[in-house]
Specification:
Blueprint lengths: L2 E2 H10 L2 E5 L3 E8 L2 E10 L6 E2 L1 H10 L5 H8 L5 H10 L4
Antiparallel strand pairs: 1-5, 2-3, 3-4
Organism: Methanoregula boonei (strain DSM 21154 / JCM 14090 / 6A8)
Protein name: Type II toxin-antitoxin system HicA family toxin
């Protein structure tokens, strides 16, 4: 199920990510204790109405260290909290 770039952006920014513009993509970097970590992903700069395809979501959930696409969707839908996400990353020795 594709999602809007706008929805992903809003959720990521609420959950401790920062947005950095580059030439072609937005990068979302996890900010933990005011430090940039290695948890990151990117999406294209195609405006707020562009959908993120299922194929791209599959790549993104791996980059963000989720165990499944459904877990990432919970994060985007705000049913998985920032604290739960940090706990998950720490348990897997990612941050």
């Amino acid at each position: 199920m594709p999602i809007k770039q706008r929805d992903f952006s809003k959720a990521a920014l609420k959950k401790g990510f920062v947005r950095v513009k580059s030439d072609h993509c937005y990068f979302y970097l996890m900010n933990s204790n005011n430090e940039i970590t290695n948890v990151r992903t990117k999406i294209g700069q195609h405006g707020n109405l562009k959908d993120i395809s299922d194929d791209l979501l599959a790549v993104m959930y791996k980059q963000l260290h989720f165990e499944s696409k459904n877990e990432m969707m919970r994060f985007i839908d705000c049913t998985k909290s920032y604290e739960e996400y940090l706990t998950h990353l720490k348990a897997r020795n990612i941050i």
